[in-house]
Amino acid sequence: MFGVDELGMDLGTSTLHIVVRGKGVVLSEPAYVAYDRQTRDVVAVGEDARRMYGRTPAGLIVERPLCDGRIRSFDLVSKMLRYFVRKVIGKRAAFRPRMLLALPGGMAPSEQQTLVDVLVDAGVRSVIPVDECVASAIGGGLRIDQPYGRMNIDMGGGRTNVSVFSLGHQIVWDILDVGGDKFDEAIIDYLRKKHNLLIGARTAEELKINIGSARMRGVRLDMDACGRSLVSGLPRAVSVNSEEMIEALTEPLRDLVNDLHRLIERTPPELASDIFDEGITLSGGGAQLFGLPEVISDQIKIRTTLADEPDLCVAHGLSALIDEPDRYENIDLISGSRSDLGTDE
Predict the structure, then answer these.
(1) What is d(CA 249, CA 272) in angstroms, rounded to the nearest whole number?
(2) What is the pTM of this model?
């Protein structure tokens, strides 16, 4: 199914990973672009752009070209992908590799084709689309080709893909409007209401990563949050603890659990029984919130475990598809279709 020069790209909302056949992950960069407001010229991409976020003068804008699994700016996505692909294969590569592209669930066919055209223009020979949730499940160690129900929850920055697999097919699936960004928004809203403090998205993300909690920890963690006082209008710092983070994240966690409960209700009884026996696998960068697997387990009464390296599950899944194609030949890579969108030259 795959040739000798193969790439895989995990086009995440917040982070982009590229894998190479036999080498695994060779590039991991934030999916940010910094550009001039008037000319639209790109100033920085990836980590360099992310460092500028919230700190640029009026003439510069830093943003993520993808939001909630959709393309926010076709022009910026094009420039970002071209930059990353050429960073890996070089501007004058002696070969044009094929690429497996992990696509966010629910992306429109026109958007998918735009991404393919951009990648071919950047030096890729052809593109094989792969459902993000399929790659995530494989990278998380699930044997989704077996005649048993397997459930994977892939929580990204923008949204969460939930799939129930059997015999290499997605039997039941859904895209939930809850992800790491919703956690950040909840933290921003909490500090605004409780402490009259306005913080930025980057500060909220740091709070989530360092002291964020879905349940009580063995020891309370504290961290200073710096922002602008809504009372005085001046810069101010307040001490926030991990117990407050539990309170801040209550609503998005409740929405997540309710959505999962509804999806399990739609699952055929035999597959639901398999899931109860085997448990649920949790993957994705957003799944790294402390205590999240335990909260899901407690609420829906099904054992939930966090995959190894959850933020790299999609990338590892793409690597497995490239390195061991025969092992996964009976798996539908995307919506029951195995055809290439790009064409070989």
Answers:
(1) 28
(2) 0.88
